[in-house]
Specification:
Layout: E1 3-7, E2 12-18, E3 23-30, H1 35-50, E4 59-63, H2 69-86, E5 90-93, H3 95-103, E6 109-116, E7 119-127, E8 130-131, E9 136-138, H4 144-147, E10 152-153, H5 155-159, E11 167-168, H6 175-187
Helix pairs in contact: 1-2, 3-6
């Protein structure tokens, strides 16, 4: 097994390589505006650090969000392209699950990432491997009663201390955590879903109303 993991659902552009036993190389850079520019150089860097080649990869792991439309699709399209070019499976993992796994908490807790517009993407967890609720997008004040008293991780939780007073790191997901979680599930005989994006709201960019198509007849 040689898994290439990547995620662009948060401001972190993160890549890791897992050899079936552990992560052998990883890279993470935080820059919300340069996902497309940073991702492929990060893949090259990780492969070089591991002394491996892209054609040795046996599977791709990609974070499926939730996340902003533009950033999220960079990782998903890259993962799909690698999968098609190499003829290997592409496995989707919820980005929030990767953060929960990295947090390594025992009791109930919350993962919340920044959804912008004064909202968070969030879900509740029983432990680092067990999600209790489907990912959702809400204003922090609207979910205060549902997360009251619970520890929380993620950039969204750190942004809103009134709702998440027990917030702490990790702030962003790491591909290393995604790779370890995926490898663990695959080794246990589980199946990982196809990489379908978790778009919980429409993209910011919209076609203007009364848009006129100007093409020659």
């Amino acid at each position: 097994m040689l898994l290439l993991a990547l995620d662009t659902a948060t401001p972190a552009v993160t890549v890791a390589l897992h050899d079936g036993r552990d992560v052998i190389a990883s890279s993470s850079q935080v820059d919300a505006r340069r996902h497309g520019e940073l991702l492929l150089p990060a893949v090259d860097r990780v492969l070089a650090e591991a002394g491996s080649r892209l054609d040795a990869v046996t599977g791709i792991v990609v974070g499926v969000g939730p996340g902003p439309y533009t950033g999220l699709r960079v990782g998903l399209m890259t993962a799909d392209t690698f999968g098609l070019a190499l003829g290997v499976p592409v496995h989707g993992v919820c980005t929030l699950d990767g953060l929960a796994y990295a947090a390594d908490l025992e009791g109930p807790f919350v993962v919340a990432t920044d959804a912008r517009r004064k909202e968070v993407y969030w879900a509740r967890y029983a432990d680092s491997r067990t999600r209790l609720t489907e990912p959702a997008v809400d204003r922090p004040a609207d979910i205060a009663d549902r997360v009251a008293g619970l520890p929380a991780v993620g950039a969204g939780a750190l942004l809103y201390p009134d709702t998440f007073p027990k917030a702490h790191e990790p702030e962003h997901v790491s591909a290393a955590a995604l790779a370890r979680l995926a490898a663990e599930r695959l080794a246990a005989g589980g199946e990982l879903p196809a990489p379908r994006p978790l778009y919980l709201r429409r993209p910011d960019a919209q076609v203007p109303k009364n848009y006129k198509v100007v093409t020659p007849k």
